[in-house]
Amino acid sequence: MRKPIIAGNWKMNKTAKQAVELIEELKPLIAKSKPEVVVCVPYTDLWAVKDAIAGSKIKLGAENVAWADNGAFTGEISAEMLKEIGVEYVIIGHSERRQYFGETDQSVNMRLVQALKNDLKPIVCVGETLQEREKNKTKKVLKKQILEGFKGIEDFTNIVIAYEPVWAIGTGKTATAEDANKTIGYIRSLVRKTWGAEVAKSLRIQYGGSMKPTNAKELMAMRNIDGGLIGGAALKATDFAGIVNYKG
Ligand code: 13P
Hints:
The structure is a single chain. It contains 11 helices and 8 strands. It has 248 residues and is an alpha/beta fold. An 8-stranded parallel β-barrel has the order 1-2-3-4-5-6-7-8, surrounded by 6 helices. Strand 1, helix 1 and strand 2 (36-41) form a beta-alpha-beta unit. Helix 1 (16-30) runs parallel beside helix 11 (237-244), helix 5 (105-117) packs across helix 7 and helix 10 runs parallel beside helix 11. The chain is globular and about 45 Å long. 42% of the residues are buried. 1,3-dihydroxyacetonephosphate is lined by residues 9, 94, 164, 169-170, 208-211, 229-233.
C-alpha cells in the first residue's frame, strides 16, 4: 500500500513570521490526519518552520537543492545546509524553475542524484505545457522528462513524483480526476517498463495543479493518484487542512 502524501509548495510566499502563524493555525487542524503531511517552504523560513512544527506530524521540505556539495555557486543552497536544519523533503524540477530559471532535465538529474546521496527525499516535478498538450505531446514530454531526469537512478524508495500539468498550475483549471489518473497511469507504466514492476508498484505519484478542498476527494479516490502537491491552497491553513483531511 502506498501511503498518501500531501505536500504544500509555498513558492515565494510567507516571511518567517507569517510562516509560523500559518503553521500554528494548521497544526490543530491536521493533528488527526492519515496522509503524510509535508510543507515545502522558502529557504528563509526553514529554521522558523522547523521549530514551529516540532512535536507535530508535519514534515519539513525545501523548494530546491543545489547539485554541488559546496563552493562558488552564488545563490544556491546545498544538501548539507538543508540537512543541518532538519529538512526531509526537497522539490526538484518544478515547472516554474524550468520556465523561469533555466532548469533542464539534466540539472534535475544532477540535483536528484545529490539529494539522494544526502538522504533527502526528492519530490520530482514533471508535466506538460498547454501547447504541448494541445499538440498531443503529453506522453512524449513526460517520457523525456522522466527518462532523462531519472537517468542512472536505481533506488526509488525515497522518491516521489509530482505530475503537474503546467496549464493547471495557479490557473484554477484542474485536470479532471480521470484525466489526471490516466496520465499518472502512463507515468507508472513507463516506470514499470524502465525500472520494473516492484518500483512502479511502490512509487508514490502526486497530482498538482489547482488542487483544493473541493476537488481533493475526487482526485485522491483515483487508483494511480497517491497525493497532491499544493500551491495556492497551501497558503491558507483551512484550505490546506481541507485537502489533507480529504476523507472528511
Ligand atoms: P497551484 O496549487 O497554485 O495550482 O500550484 C500547484 C503547484 O505548482 C504546486 O507545486
